[in-house]
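User: I'm writing a short methods note and want a consistent example. For Chromosomal replication initiator protein DnaA, I'll paste the sequence; you return only the structure tokens, no commentary, since I'll be parsing the reply automatically.
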Amino acid sequence: LWAQSLKILEDDLNDQQFHTWILPLRAIEDKDTIRLIAPSTFILDWVNKRLMDNVRQAVARVAPINTPEVIIEMGDYALNDFEEDSQPTVPQPLKEKNKPAPRKNEAGQSGIQSNLNTNFTFDTFVQGKANQLAAAAARQVAENPGGSYNPFFIYGGVGLGKTHLMHAIGNQLLADNPKARVVYLHSERFVQDMVNALRHNKIDEFKRFYRSLDALLIDDIQFFANKEQSQEEFFHTFNTLLEGNKQVILTSDRFPKEVDGLEDRLKSRFGWGLTIAVEPPEFEMRVAILLKKASEYNISLSEEVAFFIAKRLRGNVRDLEGALKRVDAFAQFSNRRPITVETVKEALKDLLALQQKMVTLDNIQKTVADYYKIRVADLHSKRRSRNVARPRQIAMAIAKELTNHSLPEIGDAFGGRDHTTVLHAVRKIKELRETEHQLDDDYNSLIRIITN
Ligand code: ADP
Ligand code: MG
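Assistant:
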């Protein structure tokens, strides 16, 4: 039954949901129950919270009569080796707990160069809704390298912390076991090294080296696109490592299947382990990042100012960091002015103007209407049916969040509505986002589309 249900779920869910949350589950079936075993608590929680309805519906469709009950629980995954063709499930500990301080960015006790940046650790990584899962998974990989999250694949836009997180795992592995053979490489470097090895007749050495590692971290694998020979070599290295229960960690700017110019067999293997996205930081996280970075760089930044910047700049983490440095430099050069909201306004004048210009009420309405496949005129109209009323409220809430327009101004732009209607919409949407995940996801997607 579960095998059939999986087929339905594969159709119902998007690729990422299916691969990340459903495939890792193992099923134990008897006549009236399907017991799903989750390999970790966060997969358990996630499926429980967001996908159980889909799962139950799929099972009910396969077995409409005598539908078995579906239970999900944590499992000792390693003991249940159900499928031959699955990823290695027996974790191979890489740990020897005798912690000397990690070597800094140089050849460790293994004698090989790890290329790890020791500043990129879990301690310096700020967590928020946008990267919580990625961070939790990364910690698990660091704790149990070569375990069930192999390969571990992190994807997402630029400046969202993929490289940082990858290094954090590497640094943790070395801290736990200084002898571990951990290597970080940008994919372009891998290609270059391979070309050099070929040129100097050292390809066997090259192969032996990469296949001897305990953990291989390859960044930005989208740069492998259309480099057939490198893909071929990487494919074999990758398989050797996986077969030996060695950890492979990869990043890319998009979901593996969507990387153009990558062989299908590679794409499909990349999905064998755990694939997780990092999202752009939400407001709270942007504040936390600004405060954390300020304290790292010894910049005195009040919460009020951090709020101000976070409210107005919604870019990625790297942009936030850049803005902070600019504000600091500006303050230094203007006779060491303290960093106030006024200072920030001046220092970031062009950036702030740019953000303002992009986000207009028209733009918001058009984007929301497109998203929900309704007409902009519906947002102005008096119609109250749910399929236009809800998007209208969302558009109002977004207008309040993204622009400096007053409530009456926003009401005007929505067919001359009263400011209390706008206020009601803002509150309603806030409340709904807490309980309705779909709506919350839609809201965040819209914000992203509008601000990018
Ligand atoms: P990506 O590889 O996704 O393009 P990086 O890992 O290079 O992004 O991150 C860009 C910069 O932002 C780095 O300086 C990194 O330390 C910082 N950064 C990104 N995400 C976080 C985070 N969650 N907490 C702290 N710093 C972060
Ligand atoms: Mg990167």
